[in-house]
Amino acid sequence: MDFAHQPPVEMDKAVGTELDGRLYTNLSSLSLDDRVTPSEKFYVRTRASEILPEAKSWRVHVDGLLDKPRSRTIEELKRAAKPLGLHLMECAGNVPLVRFGLISVASWAGVPIVEILDNRVAKSQASRVLVTGFDRYATKSRTSVPGASWIFTIKELAAAQAFLATEMNDQPLTADHGAPIRLVVPGWYGCTCIKWVEKITFVADDAEATTQMQEYAARTHQRGLPALAREYQPAIIDPAAMPIRIEKWFVEGTIKYRVVGIAWGGTTPIKSLMIRFNPEEEYLPVDGFVQTKNDPWTFWTHAWSPKEPGTYSIRLTIGDAGVRTRRLDSGYYVRTVEISEV
Question: In the chain, where do the E strands start and end?
Fold first, then answer.
């Protein structure tokens, strides 16, 4: 069954170009038996520049507050790449207007970024690194601000097990997905996962927040508009959950409904996921939920018997005490369905 009030959006197909290019993943078609999104359906927030240089000449330069700058060719990085598992990526601007289609999971291969960042050669005042991607386009954007760069501490990148990806789903990255090389920061919003990485720069603690960090400040739950990178809270995805489809079944002449959904985010698995179908109802435990890993995502199901026809707003919450869930608390992922018969 379709959710109510969904805008007409082209799904699973790339539209637009460069900074205005998008691809929205159709979550309703996800299979409970396969957690991986095919590469051709993996979401895209910004498509490749029409003036992107050829991959064969690509280098990632490491410079800034170092005794001696250095660089790695794309061929060197490909030779050093290794399988790094399944990881989810979600755009911080994943909104109902696009049917929450800016979220996907892939199997990645690449090089852990700590292997690139030999901070033993960094100067004493180098406390952070600026990751910069190719950010020049043939046309001016109507919707986005150029600025493919983000500043992290080395400790943040190590804790997230961030890596420079060369492959997704056992194939070389496509240009739209960041080829020849992109940053992946597991557990952080996709705006931090810089595509077309060309430079990593050691910077001091007083480095200014980049234009991309400022553009995404509200969407990554910052306190105001941070002027300095050190004022920016880590753009970590809180635990979240939402339904992706409602199934209507006929079993021995009786109508049965089943809610199918996903849960993701956070730094550890959650123990309890709760669901309700209208504000006046009580939350109930989701009856088909067990999470052993918080990354990439967990599929869940819930048998539902609406008492009467009508409009129902489906909302999830986490039952674990003390777990921060800012988007769930705000009702961000609420979805509505019209039930015509019970």
Answer: 59-64, 70-73, 82-90, 103-112, 128-133, 149-153, 163-168, 171-172, 182-184, 197-203, 240-251, 254-264, 273-276, 284-285, 297-304, 310-318, 335-339
Whole-number pLDDT of residue 318: 97
The correct CATH number of 18-231 out of 3.30.70.270, 3.40.50.2300, 3.90.420.10, 3.30.360.10 is 3.90.420.10
Residues 6 or more apart from 215 whose CB is under 8 A from it? 144, 145, 147, 191
This prediction's pTM? 0.96
Regarding beta strands 163-168 and 182-184, do their DSSP bridges make them parallel or antiparallel, or are they unpaired?
antiparallel
Rg of the chain, C-alpha, whole Å: 21
DSSP 139-203: S--SS-----EEEEEHHHHHHHT-EEEEEETTEEPPGGGTTT-EEE-TTB-GGGS-SSEEEEEEE
Q: What is the pLDDT of residues 100-150, one digit of tens each?
A: 999 999 999 999 999 998 766 788 889 999 999 999 999 998 877 777 999
